[in-house]
DNA sequence: CTAGGGTTAG
């Protein structure tokens, strides 16, 4: 028969208890006294700030710890040790933690709560002590604690922080099999998040494959994460090829993209000058029953206009209105940009009043776009008028505004006016 | 809790 240590301990307590009370009451008093001891310890740690800064006295906290518990004639609690460890970490005395650990291992009997050890793994990791973190992980059973995926995730998190320690991950995954810890979806999330963060998206996709092969099922969060990382990937040779094919692949495996997923993809496609692909993605959304919001439409509209397909742009604008979406400044600016590119300045200027009627205030960008277009067709006086209107409406100008105006004036050969404007710029120190 | 994500030009 297996006798669990906890039942052994309670038998021992019943036999040797000091108070003629029930076990419940005894426990209560014990907890109370331990709390008092912990309070004393915390006070003594807080009361000596000058010693905290003094690294020559590393034993202070630790001896205070022992002392406060012996003076209350009770055993230190795991929480007390936790406090000591946290304090040592906070005061950059991580190198003194091993002594504390030794004491927990050899002098104490309690079952150490796993979170304390898991947290220490992270402390070690952030202090750059990868070796200590790994050692601690392997040593967890010595602290009368059964390591679970919780500790493993902490370790994986730490290992994934640098490319150097990343190499140790496969070894640790094997090791945890021996320790009988089964990876959970959360572990994969830790790995994939970290891999994406350090730009190792290829490895992240590999992890996703392992996950599927090991029967964990496809995790939507992992998919979204990899997808958005691919969209942000700077190596275009890689991402241009991957983004859509990756999306296609995970969709086949049962992933249903959310609006955010599509937003990421559309933003990527537009940035890459693939406006038509962005439009396709938008259609795909609708097919899948997701109503694209105004941001999606604005991005696609931008992409289409960049391609010069103004007919499609108009269609798209109509469509969004039909869907009941309300265009905002971003949308109007994109649209106005399209009108300006077609040299349809008239329509662009009319948009200002339309916007105002619809309760959408034109902003600096709106005016800059139109100023540029007006100057382009050589209507300097109209541009000046527009600038006055800007001021009137309380829309401040920026250096871009002045550059546009100077450009216009020089283009016209109006050097005098340009000089006047130049002085105004110098006055405002907007150079 | 319903944001965030999106607009000029260099």
UniProtKB/TrEMBL annotation:
The keyword Repeat is annotated on this UniProt entry: yes
Q: Name one Pfam family in it.
A: PPR_3
Residue stretches of each PPR repeat: 184-218, 258-292, 293-327, 328-362, 363-397, 398-431
Alphabetical keyword list = Repeat
Query: Can you tell me which family this protein belongs to?
Result: Belongs to the PPR family. P subfamily.
Which protein, by its recorded name, is this? Pentatricopeptide repeat-containing protein
Organism name: Rhamnella rubrinervis
């Amino acid at each position: 028969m297996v006798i669990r240590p906890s039942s052994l301990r309670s038998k021992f307590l019943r036999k040797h208890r000091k108070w003629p009370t029930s076990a419940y009451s005894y426990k209560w008093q014990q907890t109370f006294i331990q709390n008092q001891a912990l309070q004393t310890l915390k006070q003594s740690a807080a009361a000596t700030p000058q010693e905290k800064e003094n690294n020559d006295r590393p034993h202070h906290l630790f001896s205070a710890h022992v002392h406060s518990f012996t003076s209350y004639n009770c055993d230190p609690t795991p929480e007390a040790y936790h406090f000591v460890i946290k304090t040592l970490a906070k005061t950059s005395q991580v190198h003194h933690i091993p002594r504390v650990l030794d004491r927990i291992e050899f002098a104490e009997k309690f079952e150490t709560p796993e979170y304390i050890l898991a947290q220490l793994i992270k402390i070690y990791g952030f202090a750059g002590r990868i070796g200590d973190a790994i050692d601690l992980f392997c040593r967890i059973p010595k602290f009368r604690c059964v390591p679970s995926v919780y500790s493993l995730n902490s370790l994986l998190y730490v290992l994934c922080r640098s490319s150097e320690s990343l190499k140790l991950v496969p070894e640790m995954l094997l090791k945890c099999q021996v320790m009988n810890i089964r990876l959970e979806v959360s572990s994969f999330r830790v790995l994939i998040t970290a891999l994406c963060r350090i730009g190792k998206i290829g490895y992240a996709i590999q992890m996703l494959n392992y996950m599927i092969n090991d029967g964990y099922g496809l995790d939507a969060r992992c998919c979204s994460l990899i997808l958005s990382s691919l969209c942000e990937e700077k190596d275009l040779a890689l991402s241009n090829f991957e983004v859509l094919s990756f999306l296609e692949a995970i969709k086949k495996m049962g992933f249903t993209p959310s609006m955010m997923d599509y937003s990421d993809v559309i933003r990527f496609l537009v940035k890459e000058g693939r406006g038509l692909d962005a439009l396709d993605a938008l259609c795909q959304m609708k097919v899948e029953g997701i109503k694209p919001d105004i941001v999606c439409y604005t991005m696609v509209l931008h992409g289409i206009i960049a391609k010069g397909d103004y007919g499609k742009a108009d269609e798209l604008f109509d469509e969004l209105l039909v869907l009941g979406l309300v265009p905002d400044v971003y949308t109007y600016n994109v649209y106005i940009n399209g009108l300006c590119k077609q040299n349809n300045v008239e329509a662009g200027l009319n948009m200002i009043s339309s916007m105002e009627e619809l309760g959408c205030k034109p902003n600096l960008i709106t005016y800059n776009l139109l100023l540029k277009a007006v100057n382009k067709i050589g209507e300097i006086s109209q541009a000046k008028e527009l600038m006055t209107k800007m001021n009137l409406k309380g829309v401040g100008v920026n250096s871009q505004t002045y550059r546009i105006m100077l450009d216009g004036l020089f283009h016209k050969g109006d050097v005098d006016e340009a000089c006047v404007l130049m002085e105004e710029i110098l006055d405002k120190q907007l150079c």
